[in-house]
Amino acid sequence: MSNPRKQRYQRKAPELVIDREFELQLWIKGWSLRNIAKELSANREYIVSHVSVWNDIQFMLREWRRFRLDKIDDMKQAELVKLNALEREYWDAWERSKEEYRKRVAEKKGGEDGAVMKQSLTQEDRNGDPRYLDGVMKCIDKRCKLLGLDAPMKIDENLHSTVQVIRPVLPQSDDDVPDTAENE
What we know:
The protein has 184 residues and is mainly α. It has helices spanning 13-28, 33-42, 50-98, 130-147, 180-183; strands at 101-109, 116-124.
């Protein structure tokens, strides 16, 4: 039961900050409000009700929303900078993949005393690796999504589909059921 020396009282700001973080961690893990209140009260010199836990969690969620709205432009800008750097790398790799390819091959023929070195140089023109262009396209798609530039998707409200239900035919009597013992 409850400890007689513990009682409810108005938590101070530092206690609230610590308690809210603790409550939120347990709530995210799926704990019930009552169990969070019991766990918190067991580890504190005061009692916290499940209603206080609910209010604390709601406060934290409101703070997250406010922070997210305040910082969304900064976070978008940071992601855009990363996307731009990645896209630049893809473009550079694309350009390198189109350059002429040169390969030197050195071959040693003959015995140890009369070694003959044969060298060959091969050159080939390349058309470029399309995987890099695919990377560029992914960067562009991600940027458009981040900035909300994608056109809204249209859903045909007049689209009707039919579903065919297939029901198995069940035997009507025991005579219709094959005897598995006879077949074995």
